Amino acid sequence: MYNILTCDDEQIMIDSLQFIIKKNFEGQVNLFSALSGSDAVSIVSREKIDIIFMDINMPGMSGLDAISCIKSLKPSAVIIVLSAFDKFQYAQEAMNIGAYKYITKPVNRNIVIQTVRNAMNLVDERNGTTSGNLELQKKLDIVYPMIESDFIYSCIFSKAKNEDFKSYLDYFNMKVDEFFFACIEIPGSEKNIYEACAKIRKIISQKFKCLAGSFMTNRVAVFVSMEKSAEIFEDDFHSAAREIFTLLSVEIGQKLRAGISNISGKLEEVSDRCKDAIQALNRTSPDGGLLFSDELLNSSSGDEKIQELCERILNRLKLGDAAGVQFLAEHYIGELYEQNFPLDKIKGNIFEILIEAKNSAKSASSSWKNAAFENIFSDLSKIDSKTELLNFFKNRLSECAAFICSSKDEKENPLVKKVFGYIQEHIAENFSLDDAASFAGVSSFYLSKLFKEETGETFINYVTDRRLEKGRLMLCETELSIKEISAEIGYNDQNYFSRIFKNKFGISPTDFRNTNRNSESL
Description:
With 522 residues, the protein is of the alpha/beta class.
């Protein structure tokens, strides 16, 4: 029998976890619960607890303090951290002081089941109760990566037939309804490639089954399997992929580069999708970023290519995708210069797109107003360098995209509007999906589903975007330090704020503020 303790200051979270554990491990577990860190420490001092689920953010003794105390009382206890996405720095600190793993809220049933199963194996190993099975698993652990790498090489270099690919997937016990490829370039030298590969596999596998292997110096290819039940990708594939990329960037480094292929359901397209991901990776910015293969330009040339980019920019703008607009804007300006357009012609093209952007913002809401657009023509006439033009172009487009995104609030479900107000009011505080659901008087599961249906993005992504947008405005409109702005929008770690700001806007907070000031002084 395994003794499992669940510690969270919200009873609904405890009930959810214990329901999942009891249903899937009936007869194997004794369950204990605690509503605070101090209660958890007290229970561990009295009972022989094997596995602990610990929330980070609790009143009184925090989860981090409780973990430290528990590790001194029972070093062998397997501790799983519960954390919201935007509390990642705390989860990371918990890992540093001995936690086994962290999982994000709201919890995913399959992840909880697999985490408990792995934790039980670790308890057995620490207690010395595993024998021949453990030795066999160790041998399989040696063979598994070799076969995994062979599969990746076969995909890249087209060295296998459909039957061979199916045999590989059968070996890995992977049911594949649909799949996509991700090719990721690790910042720094290739000596850390194996550690980085393990982190990539770990983060992606929290949502999907995947196979990963290095194929060139500091590059990793990942085959991601999607079953039909993986509804997260049906509505917004790009948003979900960006969420994974953000987690990888925080864990591995700021200059992470990645290319993502389209989704496919045909095994005969495995090699083609892999090549699409590599091609997308090759087109990403050297400073880091994410590019989808469906955003690559067709094999057009000259004016057709310029027009295609212009249309893509305006389409992403109407969707309120500030990050996508910024990336395409860089390609657009680069293409104009590559084709040796005269400076006046470049400025004219930028002016026309910004007027379209302004009209799109006005169409989204009659309340649109931005002083920066009142003198666009005169401001453009004063700029001569490529860098200044690009920054001006990207900033104005981002402002329009962010407004269009936020203007969708007016068309939302009344309950979702109520939650929007809660988010705005508590933007500087630590709050979770459960907090918002409690405020709205519904379950967290219902709110999560409704929020995605109404807004097209997850609750966590929406909160993060609102915080970053407020931070961007404060960088423009106040003299507060980066640390002060970070605290004002709910981030206690300014380094974390800087990383996710750059992931979204493609520029650090400091550089963004300097660029904005320089453009105002012209």
